[in-house]
Amino acid sequence: MAGPNDNQDTAAPGIAPATSASPYAWYGLFILFLVYVLNFIDRQIITILAPDIKADLGLDDADIGFLYGTAFAVFYALFGIPLGRLADSWHRVRLLTVGLAIWSAMTAVSGFAKNGLTLGLARMGVGIGEATASPSAYSLISDMFPKRMRGTALAIYSAGLYFGGGISLMIGGFIVAGWNNAYPGGGPLGLVGWQAAFLAVGVPGLLLAAWVATMREPVRGLVDGLPTPPSTEPFRGFFQELFAVIPPFTMIAAAQRGAAAFAVNIGALVLLGLIAAGMIALTGATLQWLCIAIGYYAVFSWASSLRARDKATFALIWGSPAFLCTILGYGCVAFLSYATTAFGPTYAAQVLGEDTAKIGFWIGGFGALGGFLGVILGGRMSDWLRARSESGRIMVIAFGLITPVIPVILAYTTANDPNSDADFIRFTVFASLGNMFASSALGAAAATTQDLVMPRMRGTATATFFLATTLFGLALGPYLAGQMSVISGSLSTGVLSILVIVPVGLTLLFFAWRMVPLAERTVVERARAAGEPV
């Protein structure tokens, strides 16, 4: 029987895979960690600002779910596809520098929003900029750290998610409280507290971008003994992917592949349009379901185009049931995690009656600590289990799906006690535990996706991984929780309703657990069979 490390014999002749990481690799990982911290500060700060935004702009929980989730997620996911391809062929450090500058600027622009539409457009811009981050970072980390350390390294990078999310609540809470106390009627430029908070976290990203630009670009695949030469036409694939994923160019790309491909593409568009129309009639949420339909249609178009243009990449990603079950299984973890994260501060404010600064400090602080511990311990555990079982990392993903259930129930059934802080303490403790358990799955899922593809495909694999976390987890989880809150009149009911995703995720992860070992052992063989010149 093949062992868990047998696929290392696929290294190029005379080039042994690395067994340790250099000091510069750890330095680079630290910078990438800071980038991801800022990534999630800019992404998550809207959750602590939500009560003020709702009051000032006349929005409800479903609108906040859209702004936090769908408006960001669809554009993050769609542009992540061509940008992931660019990360596979161009200078990843330069790509990350440009993206960081864009999303920081768009976060600052969010501070000048005067209605839900303009804030939604700014959030879409943040999503486009942030789409550069993880494809670039995952690919860089995978070329700086050997396979045996990759789960830990990716978990350390991913810890920035929880530091950023927690810090965003602290910063947002203190700025809103301080600004509104100092300027009750609005401060300079007429800005109120939540607008000032967007500006305060957006501008520093431009300085960090200058630091990122100084990083060295590692040789692709060298750490695995599979050095890959630079692409001679790095932007060709990017524009191919851009036209394959952005409507209406998707129809032109389909027509170029023939009448049958064009008919299938139009059929998919019509079907998704009908489903969206039905959901709009049911919920009244036009932008939500229009964005979802466009996103899903674009992904279908892209995958169809990829199959025709890059058979090997398609075979190892979309043609791999092991890969798909892994990313969709983790997408269920994201569905649960994003929904609870989106409405935690709102629950503490509206149901428990706590003030913004207190919510930001305690929920943000404990959330950051819990998320950090969960993702680091989960990453370490995934590497330890992977050394003993080829399906070890899948078990960690399943752990991250099951264990948050009870803490989430206990947190979101907490009732207001006007005579004591016990209610807020209970909510904070259990919400943080749920966050910690869910975060343990991320490093394991990320490392698995990287191990199931060839080195040149890592950026594209990461972009596909984030399709599951964003177009499924982020675009649907928070919105559905918010919509159920509006329908039921209870935020508790809204959040707890998303627990229905757990058995779906467990089913997907069971199949991943069965299929990943063989899929990982046969990466090179399957790539060669699909035409890869290995």
Number of strands: 0
- Rg over alpha carbons: 22 Å
Protein structure class: mainly alpha
User: Helix count, per DSSP?
Assistant: 23
Oligomeric description of these chains:
single chain
Largest sheet: none
Termini gap: 24 Å
Which stretches are poorly predicted, pLDDT < 50 over at least 5 residues? 1-12
State the shape: globular
User: How much beta, percentage-wise?
Assistant: under 5%
H-E order:
HHHHHHHHHHHHHHHHHHHHHHH
Helix content: over 70%
Rounded average pLDDT:
88
Task: List the keywords.
globular, 23 helices, 534 residues, 77% helix, disordered N terminus, mainly alpha
Question: What do you see in this structure?
Answer:
- By secondary structure, the chain is mainly alpha-helical.
- It is globular, with a radius of gyration of 22 Å.
- The N terminus is likely disordered.
Brief summary of the model shown:
With 534 residues, the protein is an all-alpha fold. It has 23 helices and no strands.
Topology summary:
Blueprint: H1 23-57, H2 61-89, H3 92-110, H4 116-130, H5 133-142, H6 147-182, H7 193-202, H8 204-212, H9 234-245, H10 249-256, H11 259-283, H12 286-309, H13 311-316, H14 321-350, H15 356-386, H16 392-402, H17 405-411, H18 422-439, H19 442-451, H20 458-488, H21 491-496, H22 501-521, H23 523-529
Helix pairs in contact: 1-2, 1-3, 1-4, 1-5, 1-6, 1-7, 1-8, 1-14, 2-4, 2-5, 2-9, 2-12, 2-20, 3-4, 3-5, 3-7, 3-8, 5-6, 5-20, 6-7, 6-15, 6-19, 9-10, 10-11, 10-12, 11-12, 12-20, 14-15, 14-16, 14-18, 14-19, 14-20, 14-22, 15-16, 15-18, 16-19, 16-22, 17-18
